């Protein structure tokens, strides 16, 4: 799940003006974010080794400004041949990262700064081989292992494709592949989703910036948390393609409201979920692809509206019909706060606006968020999930032992 917020940048050219870095850092600092700067790995010497001269200059400049920055090198190195007609193998990539670590240690201010990588793309054959070789040769250099996941091709134009259970399940399969490699070579290392979005290459207009994309986004947060991925970096926040969280006028898009609710209600501790009727075991090689996806966490400790011991359940209903959920056991007779998200307006799943418990969400003004009011469900009431909707449900005063610690 999202453990803390970071802003992530890749320098796509060899020249990044100092004034641009100043603006970027000041923005991150004012917003209470931590900046992770992705250095250009394609600045190469004739022997294909990494030319680190501009990186060293940037490190020294940033140190002089006392900018608290973490670092990463490159973006999807498994795709360099396709994107830039260059090829970097795992040995070379490991040497590049070792060199960057040495440079960081030579600049006293960054001698203990964090380094992340190698930020491979989707873990298919070439990416897997690159990650395996990198971890074998230089896995100890990075503080967390990063990789990226995008669910779908940007050429997809049907909203139904954003709701296929087979598509949603690809993330779990790929996390398993990455964790296997990391645990083989460096089992103590954290694994991060260093870039994730509904669609690659900037996303798809009128799809990856709409309510429909929220199913993929919340699925990402739920599955990542269940696998122990403690940091998820969303691509992107603003002004690149159609995966962004705010529009050109900085108005929140559906995934922004979803992220805001998640951060306010969902804590880092993951709880097991047992759904009666879904306990059957699949045959070997077969996965049960559920259209009703239910996750449970301890409620965020940072939310002062709820005492420790509360539980947050979040649900994705991909069915075209309403689904009823009855809480059982000790949850049955507890008051529940409902935060139900549905598309707002006549565009349905293509809507770029959302409603919370039937009320449209809009900024009050340029600086003021609306109050995110829950709807109280009396104890014992059945939860009714409307078709193709998303809901957060906080079980108050349950005093769950796992959530009191």
UniProtKB/TrEMBL annotation:
Similarity field? Belongs to the glycosyl hydrolase 79 family.
Q: Name one GO cellular component term.
A: extracellular matrix
Q: What is this protein called?
A: Inactive heparanase-2-like
The UniProt entry, under InterPro entries, shows:
GH (IPR017853), Glyco_hydro_79 (IPR005199)
Q: List the source organism.
A: Sinocyclocheilus anshuiensis
Q: State any GO BP term from the record.
A: extracellular matrix organization
- One Pfam family hit: Glyco_hydro_79n
One MF annotation (Gene Ontology) recorded for this entry: hydrolase activity, acting on glycosyl bonds
């Amino acid at each position: 799940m999202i453990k803390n917020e970071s802003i992530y940048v890749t320098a796509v050219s060899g020249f990044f003006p100092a004034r641009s870095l100043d603006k970027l850092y000041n923005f991150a600092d004012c917003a209470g974010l931590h900046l992770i700067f992705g250095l250009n790995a394609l600045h190469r010497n004739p022997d294909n080794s990494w030319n680190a001269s501009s990186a060293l200059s940037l490190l020294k400049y940033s140190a002089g400004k006392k900018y608290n920055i973490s670092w990463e090198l490159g973006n999807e190195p498994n795709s360099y041949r396709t994107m830039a007609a260059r090829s970097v193998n795992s040995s070379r990539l490991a040497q590049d990262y070792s060199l960057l670590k040495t440079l960081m240690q030579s600049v006293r201010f960054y001698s203990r700064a964090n380094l992340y990588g190698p930020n491979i793309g989707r873990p298919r054959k070439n990416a897997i081989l690159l990650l395996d070789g990198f971890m074998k040769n230089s896995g100890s250099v990075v503080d967390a292992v990063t990789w990226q996941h995008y669910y779908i091709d940007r050429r997809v134009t049907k909203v139904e494709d954003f709701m296929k259970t087979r598509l949603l399940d690809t993330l779990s399969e790929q996390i398993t592949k990455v964790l296997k490699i990391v645990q083989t070579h460096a089992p103590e290392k954290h694994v991060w989703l260093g870039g994730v979005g509904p669609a690659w290459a900037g996303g798809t207009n009128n799809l990856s910036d709409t309510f429909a994309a929220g199913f993929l986004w919340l699925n990402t947060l739920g599955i990542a948390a269940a696998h122990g991925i403690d940091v998820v970096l969303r691509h992107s926040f603003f002004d690149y393609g159609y995966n962004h969280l705010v529009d050109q006028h900085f108005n929140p898009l559906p995934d922004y409201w979803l992220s805001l609710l998640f951060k306010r209600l969902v804590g880092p501790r993951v709880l097991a979920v047992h759904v009666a009727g879904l306990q059957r075991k699949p045959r070997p090689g077969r996965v049960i692809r559920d259209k009703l996806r239910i996750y449970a966490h301890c409620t965020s400790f940072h939310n002062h509206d709820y005492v420790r011991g509360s539980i947050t359940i979040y649900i994705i209903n991909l069915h075209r019909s309403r689904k009823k959920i009855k809480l059982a056991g000790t949850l049955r007779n507890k008051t529940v706060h409902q935060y139900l998200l549905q598309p707002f307006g006549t565009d349905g799943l293509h809507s770029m606006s959302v409603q919370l418990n039937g009320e449209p969400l809009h900024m009050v003004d340029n600086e003021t968020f609306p109050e995110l009011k829950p709807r109280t469900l009396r104890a014992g009431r059945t939860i009714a999930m409307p078709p193709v909707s998303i809901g957060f449900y906080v079980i108050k005063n349950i005093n769950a032992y796992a959530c009191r610690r």
